[in-house]
Every structure is written in structure tokens, then in C-alpha cells.
Amino acid sequence: MSKLLQEIREPVANARGVRLLLWRDDLAHPDLPGNKARKLKYNLQAARAQGHRTLLTFGGAYSNHLAAVATAGRLLDFRTIGLVRGDAPTAGAALNPTLTQAAADGMALHYLDRSSYRRRAEPEFLAEVQARFGPAYVLPEGGTNVLALPGCAELVDEIRAQVEFDALAVAVGTGGTLAGLLTGLCGLEQALGVAALKNGGFLRAEIDELTQQAVGKTFPDYSLQTDYHFGGYARYSAELLAFIEAFQQRHGVLLDPIYTGKMLFGVLDLIRQGHFAPGSTVVAIHTGGQQAWAGWHQRFG
């Protein structure tokens, strides 16, 4: 078995006759692991083909995506610009750990008030941004667009080369990773997404639109679970943090509190409820995101 594929022995899975595996995409690259790198792969190829030397993108102050774009810029010799949601730090104030690393990787950071940030997908606003910062390849918040899907679809082939599975499970933020996985499935293989944000029902329409644009069809049979958000995006509870700590003690794997912790909590609860048939092999995907812990500790202790 590949070092990226780990058996997760949990009493609830054993009791239900479900084989649970964890795909460690967080270990796939020493500097740029996880789903953010997969979303970037074909976007960066397109940027290079179009003659761009600058990447411009958007994100919150603790964004995994901002961190990944900054690292990609350093590794692949792109200039990077990050438009950050929120107020600029006051003079002399230290940046949070995510933005400190992004700046160290060469990203120029600029700040947008929340009303401006809400316009980030509007063509007129993007034209204003390009006029201000110069020509750039624009990546959307979270890195989700049509070119993000084929990089995520390749993950299905990598997993399938290691193990036959019945279902893949992944955390869902913008929906791009799940959409990409859907385009890579075949036969009776299924996908399950666990939404990390509150009121995530809108994600199905977003995912359907992405797959329609990418491969000309939608995939109606996937499962989108919206009950494991723990209060909303980047919200948490003592129960979630205790689960993450106990999971690390049992399996030696650090989950993150924004995405993968909620996903694994949800998957185990669904196994308990009998969501997966006895004899099923379920592969949960660790999409990375551990960089968020430094900022988490800074904010919450």
C-alpha cells in the first residue's frame, strides 16, 4: 500500500463492516500538498501558455488558497498578488502566520473592505483590479474554476491504482474538489462531500454548473452532507476539537479544524448510521490545510 494510503481502524467501521482508508494528499508534496495544488496545476499551465508572469487571487486572512498560490509562485517563478478580505493591519502590527508565510514566499498583499471584496467575481471589478495592478492571470477565491477540475480528477486515478473503492469522501468548501472527483469516477464508484460551511445546500448547483462546463454533464447521484459544519465556516466546538485530538492520538494524523476534521467526523457518523453498505471500502481524502493551525492557535489558543 502506498505511503499516501492509510488504513483507519475505527470500532464503528468494524462494527458496520466498512473498510475505511485515508488518502494522505497532505503528504503528496513537501511544499505544495493537497487539493489546492491540484486545483492550481492546469491553471498555472494556462497562465504560462497565455504569457502571464503574475498570478492575482483573493482570500481571507487565513486562506489555504492564498498560502498555496504564494508557494506556487515561489516554486514556479510567478509574481503573486493576494487581495485579502478585511482591513490592513495597523502600522507596526504583525501579520498572522498565514500572511507572514505568504509574504515570505513573495506575495504582495493588498486589502479589500468587505463591500469591495463581495465584487470579486464581477467583470467590471476585475477590470479595475487589472488596471490597478497590471496584467495578471486571475484565480478565483478558493481556486475553483473549470480548470481546477482535471487536476482533482487525476486524484481518482491515483487512488484507484492503489485500491478498489466504493466511495470517496472529501470536505467541501467551494465545491471544486468534489466536482473534479465526480468527473473522474467510473462504474459504480460514488462520491460524498461534507460541507464545511453553514447553509451549504447551494453548493449542489455550483457543482453541477462546474461539471457541466468541464465535461458537458452533471452527476446527480453524489451525496452532499450539510449537517457537519459545527456552526459554519471556520466555526468549531469543543466536540470537534476533542475529536481531532483523539483522532491524532489513535492514528497519528493531524486533521485541520476547518475542513478535514469536519469531514472525518461526518464520515464516521454516517458509517454509524449505516449510510455505507456492509462490505464497502470508503476512502476519505485528507486535502491538507494544516497551515491553518498556526493562525488558529493565535486566534483561539
From TrEMBL:
The keyword Amino-acid biosynthesis does not apply. Its cofactor is pyridoxal 5'-phosphate. Keywords: Pyridoxal phosphate. InterPro entries: ACCD_DCysDesulf, TrpB-like_PALP, TrpB-like_PALP_sf. Residues 14-288 form the Tryptophan synthase beta chain-like PALP domain. SUPFAM superfamilies: Tryptophan synthase beta subunit-like PLP-dependent enzymes. The keyword Nucleotide-binding does not apply. Belongs to the ACC deaminase/D-cysteine desulfhydrase family. This is Pyridoxal-phosphate dependent enzyme. It comes from Hymenobacter monticola.
